[in-house]
């Protein structure tokens, strides 16, 4: 099964990248879930946690603020002024 290709970057480095099955993020318009086949979109990130679900069911959490999220052709790009793996 094809998945999502996800990349999370901050102003100075790549925080996380990999193949996933789902991404959940908080935008200025509310929380959004992204699965394979999602329509192309561009959204402004709100401060909060981005949750990434891998194919094996494990999750990665990233704290992000001040940025945007882009979805196109099963590729999700999250660019934030500040982003770090959640502890």
Q: What does this protein look like?
A:
Helix content is 0%, strand content 70%. With 87 residues, it is mainly β. Strands 1, 2, 3, 4, 5, 6, 7 and 8 form an 8-stranded mixed sheet that branches. The chain starts with a strand and ends with a strand. The model has no long low-confidence stretch (mean pLDDT 95).
The radius of gyration is 12 Å
Q: Helix proportion of residues, in percent?
A: under 10%
The profile of the biggest β sheet is: 8 strands, mixed
Which structural category do the helix and sheet elements fall into?
Answer: mainly beta
Strand coverage percent: over 45%
Low-confidence blocks of residues: none
Oligomer: single chain
Q: What's the rounded overall pLDDT mean?
A: 95
Distance, first to last CA: 30 Å
Count, helices? 0
Question: How are helices and strands ordered from N to C?
Answer: EEEEEEEE
Number of strands: 8
Task: Produce a short descriptive summary.
With 87 residues, the protein is mostly beta strands. It contains no helices and eight strands. Strand 6 and strand 7 form a beta hairpin.
What's the SSE blueprint?
Elements: E1 4-9, E2 14-20, E3 22-27, E4 30-35, E5 41-45, E6 48-53, E7 59-72, E8 75-85
Parallel strand pairs: 1-8
Antiparallel strand pairs: 1-2, 3-4, 3-6, 5-7, 6-7, 7-8
Descriptive key words:
87 residues, mainly beta, eight-stranded mixed beta sheet
């Amino acid at each position: 099964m094809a998945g999502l290709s996800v990349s999370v970057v901050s102003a100075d480095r790549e925080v996380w990248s990999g193949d996933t099955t789902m991404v959940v993020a908080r935008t200025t318009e509310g929380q959004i879930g992204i699965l394979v086949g999602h329509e192309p979109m561009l959204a402004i990130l709100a401060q909060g946690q981005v949750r990434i679900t891998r194919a094996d069911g494990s999750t990665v959490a990233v704290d992000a603020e001040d940025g945007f999220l882009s979805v196109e052709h099963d590729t999700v790009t999250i660019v934030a002024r500040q982003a770090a793996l959640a502890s």
